[in-house]
Every structure is written in C-alpha cells, then in structure tokens.
Amino acid sequence: MAKKSKLLLPLSRSLAIVSLLALSACKTVDQVAPASSPIRTTQSSPTRITLTTIAHFNGSNGSDPIGVVQAKDGNLYGVTASGGNPGAGTVFRLTPEGQLKTLITFDAQINGYNSDSPLIVGQDGNLYGTTTGGGEAGGGGFGSVFRVTPEEQFTTLVVFDRTNGARPERPLIQAKDGNFYGTTYMGGTKQQGTLFRLTPNGQLTTLVQFDIDFGEASPVRNRPGGLDVFEDQNGNLYVTHGNFYGTQYMADGAATIFRLTADNKLISLTTFQGLNQGANREAYPSRLIQGNDGNFYGVTLMGTLFRLAPNGQRTTIATFDRSLFPNSLIQGRDSNFYGTAVGRETTIPGVVFRITPQGQITILARFTGINGKFPRSLIQASDGTFYGTTGQGGQGDRGTVFRLTVN
C-alpha cells in the first residue's frame, strides 16, 4: 500500500471553502411529453424526448446506484452503495445499449464497503472512487481511495486511519496538477474532517484539518456532510462544507460561502439563510458548478437556481414550484442547465428538468416508480445523450440507470 503522510501543510493555491453544506438487458422506454402535470413550469419543450431505463438493479447485482460516468471506452461506469454479496456495494460497467456487468463486489473488509460517491475518470483513463469504511483485513480502516482499470484490476491507493481522516463520502476530483483532491467528514486531529491531496501513486497529504469552530457548524454535525471539492477554469480549488442535501440529519440549511486564501484567511462571499430564519427558499444550497461564463451556479433544495459571481454577488435565476426538491445540476453543451429533482409528495417520484440561462424551467421527463424513483445524478455523454441514476424504483425496486435523449 502506498505510503501515507499525516503532515498538516498549507495550501499552495487559493481554495474557496463553501460553508453549507441485473436485469440489465430489460429496458423501459417512455415517450415523454411535458403536457398536463401537477408541477407548474414554463412551456417550450423540444420536439421529442425519450426516457429509457437501460438497467434495473435487484440487490444481487447491486442496490442504490450513486451515479455514472462515461469512460474513454464509451461505456458507463458506476458504483452502488449496497447490494451484491455481502451487501457492501459494487462497481459496475454498463454499455450505452444496457449490457450490465459487475466488475467489483466490495467485501466489507480489504477492499472496503459502501461507496457513497460517484466514480471519476482519471487522466490515465482509469476509474477512481472512495469507500466510506473498511480497507483492511477484518473490516478495519475508516474508508479508502481506490482505482479500477477497465480491465477490472482493483487497487487500494490509501486507507484512512482516523488520524488522517475518516469516511470520505464526497466525490474526488483530479486537478490540473494531476493530483487527486477529496475530503473526509470525520477524523483528523480534531475529529471534524479533513481536506486531502493524493498523488496518483498513493501519497497522501492532509491539507486542512477542519475545526468545530470553522464556519457555523462542523461536518460531523451535518451528515452526510463531508465536503465537495471542485476546480475552476483557472486551477483554483473550491470546497463545499456543512449542510448538504441527502439525509434527515441536517440542521436548518443556513450556509455561508467563504474563500480561503493561500495564507488561510477566510473571506465571506455570501450567506444563505436557513429554515429557522424564514427565508426557506434559499436553504440547503447544493454543490456548485462553474458555468461557461466563469460564474458559479447551484440549486437549493428548497427550490431555486442561483448564480454566484466570483466577487460574491448572488442572483436567483429561477424558482421551482414548491412540489419539487432539486438535487443536482450540470450545464449542457447548449449552455442550458439540466438536473434532477425529487417530489415532495409520493405522487411525484422525480423529474429531469432544463433551465435556460434566462430562468425558463421545462420539465423534460417524469419518473413513475416503475421506471425508477428518486433521481439524483445526471451527466451528458459525448454524443449529447443524458444519463443518470435513480436510487430506488425499477423492476427490482433497487434503483435504475436511465438514458434521456432530447432532440
């Protein structure tokens, strides 16, 4: 196993810290037309939208798929948080046509268990991910970072031992410098989580030890916590910290966005009020993305799309009907924003939406339960097709992978 470093080092670049937080061959095809719906949206839909369920999970082949990425071979790769034998999750490959293959079954011991974040495709074409626990014989270890090749070779790059962090639950990134960056939501010298850098050969360096006094709350008290890391167009790293959608353990959704300079000074950019403060439409902001225009964009769980300029100026672009909880966001090749949302009522298992830069919302597809429910991820593949996962529903009621074509 690669040598691990427990050094607390200053960052060499500026960071922005955002305090917020198989039935594989069986397909379900829906011709989706956003006509009458209990969800109020603006009209102006494309001429043809087709939602196709290309994989169903049934427990034995995995359960609760977290998301998919498209690798250089054109196939989709993903993880399930549970399922398989002994129920600790899987790594899978899925062809665009729907042929599903389990590549790795987590054993809850040496190769870890419960991968709760999507894989990423490395610069070398391999797949990288994390497990939230295990990594050592007998089930020891507090999570790991792993690599899987398209040829199905599995390698554990580092195992967390609590002193250098514990339970990495958010996605990795590979930055322009070739290193991987990620976070743990527990462990470290103060037991409040860490920000780390990992070289491709497995050398771990702890960059930040989070403190109970950091921001308004600690990651531990805001499960599923952890911190999202992403990189902007100029090579700066950003981190989302604190309250985050996905669990009942959250506080009231208040959040403050900070920029952490190279000399570790925090500069407040903007503040989101929480439910206890009455402004509940801006509570629970999600992970940010950087748009084509250089600004940052995100959705709040309570139903808005916002834009954040690098100078901290925040603008609400669109407001959803109160029947929806938006939970993911990407920017498409056409510069429109796409994402998924779950319904506040059981009659709305979830939707895929599009928002123009001017704020016009269109519901592109609706889930019924049979074709999946609780969507929570979306990507746009090289051919322009959208793919995503649902955490439940489908023929085995253990989640699905779907394809959405918009012509």
Give an overview in words.
The protein is mostly beta strands. It has one domain (12-406): Methylamine Dehydrogenase, Chain H, CATH 2.130.10.10. Helices cover 0% and strands 42% of the residues. It has no helices and 32 strands. The chain has a five-stranded mixed sheet, with no helix packed on it. The radius of gyration is 20 Å and the shape is globular. The N and C termini lie far apart (48 Å). The relative contact order is 0.16.
Give the structure's gist in a few sentences.
0% of the residues lie in helices and 42% in strands.
List keywords for this structure.
single chain; 407 residues; mainly beta; Methylamine Dehydrogenase, Chain H; 5-stranded mixed β-sheet; 0% helix; disordered N terminus
| Number of E-state strands | 32
CATH H-level superfamily? YVTN repeat-like/Quinoprotein amine dehydrogenase
Overall morphology: globular
> Can you tell me the CATH class?
Mainly Beta
The helix tally amounts to 0
Q: Outline the low-pLDDT stretches.
A: 1-28, 31-44, 214-226, 242-250
Largest sheet: 5 strands, mixed
Mean pLDDT: 80
CATH T-level fold name? Methylamine Dehydrogenase, Chain H
**Order of the strands making up the biggest sheet:** 1-16-15-14-13
Termini separation: 48 Å
Portion of residues in beta strands equals 35-45%
Assign the structural class, choosing from mainly alpha, mainly beta, alpha/beta, alpha+beta, or little secondary structure.
mainly beta
Number of separate domains: 1
CATH architecture: 7 Propeller
